[in-house]
Amino acid sequence: MDQFVQQLLNGLFLGAIYALIALGYTMVYGVLRFINFAHGDVFMLGAFGGLYVHKALAPLLNALPWPLALAVVMLASMAICAALGIAIEYFAYRPLRTRPRLNVLITAIGVSLFIEYTGQLVFGATQQPFPALIPRQNISGLGGLTVTMTQVIVVVVTTALLIGLRYIVMRTRLGLAMRALSLNPTAAALMGVNTSVVISFTFGLGSALAAAGGILYASLYPSVDPFMGIQPGIKAFVAAVLGGIGNIPGAALGGMIIGVVETLVTGYSQKLGIPSGYKEGVAFIILILILLFKPSGLLGKVEREKV
Amino acid sequence: MQIRNRAFLLLGLFGVVTAGLTGCKKGGDAAADADTIVIGEVAALTGGTATFGQSSHAGTQMAIDEVNAAGGVLGKKIKLVTEDDQSKQGEAGIVAKKLVSREKVVALLGEVASGRSLEMAPIAQKAGIPMISPASTNPKVTETGDFIFRVCFIDPFQGTVMAKFALARGWKKVAVMTDVTQDYSVGLSQYFKEYFTKNGGTIVGEQSYASGDKDFKAQLTSVKEGAPDAILASGYYNEVGLMSTQAKELGIQAPLLGGDGWDSPSLVQVAGKSIEGSFFSNHFSNEDTAPRIQEFVTKYKAKHGTIPDAMAALGYDSAMILVDAIKRAGTTEGKALRDAIAATKDFEGITGKISLDAKRDANKPAVVLTIKDGKFVYVETVAP
Amino acid sequence: MQLLLKYRTQAFLLLALLVSFVVSQASDNIDGYVLQIMLVAGINIILAVSLNLVNGHTGQFSLGHAGFMGVGAYMSAAVSVEMGPSILGLLGGPSTLSHGVTFVIALLVGGLCAAVCGWMVGVPSLRLRGDYLAIVTLGFNEIIRVVFQNTSSSGPFGGALGMRGIPDYSTFFWVFGIAAICIYVVASMVNSTYGRGFLAVRDDEVASESMGVNTVRYKVVAFVLGAFFAGLAGGLYAHLFGAIDPKGFGFLKSVDIIIMVILGGMGSTLGVVVAAIGLTALNEQLRDAEKFRMIVFSILLIVMMIVRPQGLLPVTFEKKRRKSA
After folding, report:
1. Domain tally for chain B?
2. B210 touching A (Cβ < 8 Å)
3. Percent above pLDDT 70 for chain B
4. Which of A96, A174, A261, C116 has its CA 20 to 30 A from that of B245?
């Protein structure tokens, strides 16, 4: 029983990080209706941003208490990635705004490959250790269960960002503009929404979220490399689709489900008699099933394709 | 004209032009310089396993430079032509063909990864030129034919070494973590299990993962239930480092055991203190006090600024054994060279005294290292 | 002469087959490395032209072409390794003929298995459009890789190590003969009355459906046929290199093929053939600059989409059709 509870916890914490990355996917999709393939790579840049910011400011950061140091590194990296996200949108996606969505998808794949391989050139192909921004210790007093400090921080930050994002989208003027754009870009523009600004803002926000995810992920699994964004990127995408792409609470729910299912399949595969190597395919099987049977996702709205 | 016809025309044109071009090429390239011996090397200088490829290349190049500095062999200088296979399937085969047909190499050195050595091997065998793999430990590599050799031990031996080591320490219950995307890890786990269970040990848990995975908590939580005395982590250092940290977080105190895929400073950088007291088998220890090894370590360090790892040592040995065989054969003709390499006996290499057996595999001891204070420390030598 | 004009496409096909046969007979005179590159180029032509049927002509977007290639490679290799000896025995020992027969059987099995997989992906994916379809095909590609990866290391598929010692049956004749057939089939299908349906599906799915075009069937046919040829290409690949492993058929391989299709121009068979040859040659030239290769290609992808989404070649099938209409 203890083992099952531990596995469940493992899954939920893994899911929290997927949820965090999925938020960015879902927001960009919600507003622009396209899959930002490069999201996972911005996530990687966020982790490297954290690494380099930490290197550059090491003496200063060591003097600060760790929560403050973490906040400094995180905000710096989020700012860098927000700027990068806005630049990517400006140079690669903006010229394609009126083109078929497929062209944008191909461009997104191009951007993704570009970031990965330029990253390989700049950062090197080998993995690098990530500094311990959060003290590596377990939370005591849970009996036989193990929860680390990092895992708790991940959940706290994810929840905070989820609420913050929800607030921005539902309660601010910019959020209103985002929702208007998502419903009908032309009408929104006619009503005086500056679409370019809103789209840039959306990308900046999404990339900042990715950067936060990257730093937390690298704190959980302290080794970073230029291709580290691919796997969590795909998982988070699946989470976003599962929850109903475009839906913010859905992304969180989807992330949790993927995390738990993946962990349970891995943990119990031996008992179930399937090679645990198949867990690589679990996310994709969930994706295919959800797209076939409920393409709108668990919490998403059903949409009809308009002619 | 319709589009498809043009496509066909183009196809035909392409065929004729390339056939024509290559027909001319053939005569031009054949004139190998009479004063040099050309040796081909295939290594992964970029891509996923670049760290291994770069090390083995550095070792190989160092050996060739030393030989040339000492006047070469058979009165000729050696030219090492290195091709990068980008750590990719198919590329090793292409560049091996390129080396054989374009550069007219007399022998091939490489690859580190068994999968890619198995691509090169049929090409060398067919062309009738010897190939020496520095570090491919899969038994199938040299089974390809009588021109294929290696200077490292093979997976069954490495698996046995760690199984023997565990049993000698009184560890009867071991859990196994296998990277199912790496044939190396799959093989090592398999041979470990075979020897271990046959000699009184029990496997108390078998889990798998894939290269690039970062979260091993699910597997480790399951492993913990079997209360193992040790955990065999047969994959590469990239994943083992993270696995080690997470094992300690989950309160698993059992040491990890592994193979030569652990040999990278990156292991300790990522795993930190959690990896202290774990063990792995390797081809050589740079702590070995034998003068020829210390000389190698010093020279390597002077040139590359880092301490040589096992791949560098094996690359060095593979080139030196080839040069030694050329010297003994007195020629670079394929068959004579093959017989000379096969006759290698008690060669004093950096990675031990190397003799090639009837299966063209190196017969030599392995060393077991442990991690202490962030360094790889020699524990013992296990003879075959 | 009239007859020749009427069947000129068929005549070209025959000519192409003949030329590849002749070159094949003389291939011992070709430098081994150059021959290898030519054969790789030929296989890339098949892959690119068949993917073009799905992505270019029919306007669907598959990111999983390497998966079908993998199925074909594994299945055909399994046939020639496991059953090859008995087939050879049945035909009275090794000879050019019996090797040829074995290879044809192996290739067909590989192609058909891939086609079945294409059908399995195509049918359920019909409910999806655009980027969702792309992601599902990507997922399918990964699942195929995972399945082969998790096979037993002592079994026929060899798990992570993959398959080794596959006989080297792929000669110039087989590679370019099949490339010619692939071009012929795809080009004449698209140019036929029936085949206009593919283009209709691409140009406007809803409109073509309302005009009575069975869009479902066209999409499935495109997927199945595309997968079949990808399977053949996989079989040729396996019998060219003699060794395959699951990692070689992942997402990155699919991207390589997609780059050929996009640079050649989606929907332009000629352009795609040129791109397949050109990129294979370019890959060899860029061997020493491997670090920059993918950076160059990724920038090319982005710039192409912005500046020339119709492909690099000046003439596309599209424009010609409009002019003559």
Report:
1. 2
2. yes
3. 91
4. A261
Q: Is the pLDDT of residue A124 over 60?
A: yes
Phi-psi region of B90 (alpha: psi -120 to 50; beta: other; left: phi over 0): left
A114:C298 CB<8 A = yes
Task: Give yes or no: residues B222 and B250 share one domain.
Answer: yes
Check A268 against B222: CB less than 8 A apart. yes
What is d(CA B243, CA B215) in angstroms, rounded to the nearest whole number?
A: 8
Cβ neighbours of residue C11 under 8 Å, at least 6 residues apart?
A: C4
pLDDT digits (tens, 9 = 90+) for C264-313: 988 888 899 999 999 999 888 887 777 788 899 899 899 988 888 888 77
Q: Would you give the distance in Å from CA A138 to the centre of its chain? A: 25
Q: Structural domain of residue B333, as residue ranges?
A: 36-153+289-364
> Per the CB < 8 Å rule, is A281 touching C146?
yes
- To the nearest whole angstrom, how far is the Cα of B212 from the nearest Cα of chain A? 8
Whether B178 and B222 share a structural domain: yes
Whether residue A257 contacts residue A19, with contact meaning beta carbons closer than 8 Å, is answered with no
A260: which residues sit within 8 A by CB, 6+ positions away? A8, A11, A12, A14, A15
Cα A76 from Cα A49, distance rounded (Å)? 8
Q: Which residues of A touch C (CB under 8 A)?
A: 34-35, 92, 95-96, 99, 101-107, 109-114, 116-118, 120-121, 237, 241, 275, 277-278, 280-281, 283-285, 287-288, 291-292, 295, 305, 307
Residues of C whose CB is below 8 A from B183: 153, 158-162, 245
In a domain, B4, yes or no: no
For the CA atoms of B169, B175, B181, B183, the dihedral, rounded to the nearest 10 degrees, stands at 40
The chains in contact with chain C, meaning 3 or more Cβ pairs closer than 8 Å, are A, B
C306 neighbourhood in chain A, CB within 8 Å: 92, 95-96, 107
Task: Write the pLDDT tens digit of every residue in A229-279.
Answer: 988 998 998 999 899 888 888 999 999 999 999 999 888 877 777 776 777
Mean pLDDT across chain C: 86
Contact B266 A129 (CB under 8 A): yes
Q: Which of B10, B97, B114 sits opposite C33 (nearest CB)?
A: B97
Q: Do residue B41 and residue B112 come from a single domain?
A: yes
Q: In this structure, is residue B256 part of a structural domain?
A: yes
What count of other Cβ atoms lies within 10 Å of the Cβ of residue B27? Answer: 8
Task: Tell me which residue has tokens 């691409």.
Answer: C202
B12 in a structural domain: no
CA A6/CA A151 separation, integer angstroms: 13
Residue range C185-207, pLDDT digits in tens: 998 888 888 888 888 888 888 88
Residue B267 shares a structural domain with residue B181: yes
A80: tokens are 């860098």
Spans of all domains in chain C: 34-250
- Residue B29 included in any domain: no
Contact A277 C139 (CB under 8 A): no
- Prior bond of C205 cis (ω within 30°): no
Check CB contact under 8 Å for B18 and C38.
Answer: yes
Q: At B271, which amino acid appears? A: A
The residue among B229, B261, B282 that closes a domain is B282
| Cβ contact A10–B222 (<8 Å) | no
Give every strand in the sheet of B375-382, ordered side by side.
B202-209, B173-179, B230-233, B256-258, B279-282, B366-372, B375-382
CA distance A277 to A113: 26
Domain co-membership, B162 together with B259: yes
Helix-strand-coil split of chain C, %, nearest 5: 80, 0, 20
Q: What is the mean pLDDT of residues A272-289?
A: 80
Amino acid at A77: S
Q: Where residue B66 sits, what CATH number does that domain have?
A: 3.40.50.2300
Helix-strand-coil percent breakdown of chain A, rounded to 5?
75, 0, 20
